[in-house]
Amino acid sequence: MTLTQTEGLVIKNYSGFYYVQDKTGYIYECKVRGKVKEKLLSGDRVLFTPLENGKGILEKVLRRENQLYRPRVANVTRVLIVMAYDQPKPDLGLLDRLIFLALFNKITPCIILNKCDLAVDETANRILSYYPASFEVIRTSARQNIGMDKLSAAITGEIGVLAGPSGTGKSSMLKLLTGSEARTGEVSAKIGRGKHTTRHVELYPLPHGGWLVDTPGFSVLDLPSLRREEMVQYFPDFSEYADDCKFGNCLHYRETECGVKTAVDEQKILLSRYQNYITMLKEIIEKEKCY
Ligand code: GDP
Ligand code: ZN
After folding, report:
1. Cβ of 168 less than 6 Å from ligand 1
2. Nearest ligand to the CA atom of 258
3. Fewest CB atoms within 10 Å of the CB: 51, 178, 200, 256?
4. Which fold has domain 67-213?
5. Ligand 1 centre from 167 Cα, in Å?
6. Which has more pLDDT, 190 or 24?
């Protein structure tokens, strides 16, 4: 009998087994074939050989689109950046950094403005008036079940991860969307030799297809290594104005005759967004000095 390999998705790793779901939705408990050297992550697409009784042998890891480090998960396609109308007030610096990190990792950001049952704060108003032109923005109340259908539609068929400050409603959303409890980022459990281990991430299934990572993501906000000129390509709302810059390699920082700075003066680009761009640009320039 020849056994045929099939494609599947790693949804969790537990006690030395990888749980792999095939296209029909069936989940196999797989052991890894010895020659597979890569460290497997939840979210990895793999080839495996199904055996009897729901067992399987994991043969090969397919190419990853991206990989997050905390939590460790592969192939995330959507990040839900959760900010609250109030309690806590939205943090635009963090919002812009998370959008940048998402785009850099080839992940589509979706801004969730939660707690819309509370009075709208001035900062929340700025999000609502500026960001929808360039990004998907969804108003929700996890408490009053408002906007949750839109949010659900935005992640159907995707591998999504929640991100954002604590207290904004991420755990409440995970519970509403998947019916399961959120897990804390990392549990450093002491094992035999006193080593610390990182808990493995699990993908929770969404009712209409797709997955949500069980742990909020992007807990590390360090900027990646990139060149200063590359920074602006992750600010899609700046691009049409950058065409008016005098210098082709304009960083929109100290240069004169800069279309982006003019757009900021004319309030076409949100001032805080430009300032957050400059803050990150300076960090990148500082990092370049360390190479
Ligand atoms: P997390 O820290 O981001 O995971 O946030 P939680 O889900 O733990 O929520 C923090 C607090 O905000 C809890 O007391 C929730 O009950 C509350 N909360 C969550 N969603 C809403 C909402 O839509 N409206 C209001 N008023 N409170 C909410
Ligand atoms: Zn410029």
Report:
1. yes
2. 2
3. 256
4. Rossmann fold (3.40.50)
5. 6
6. 24
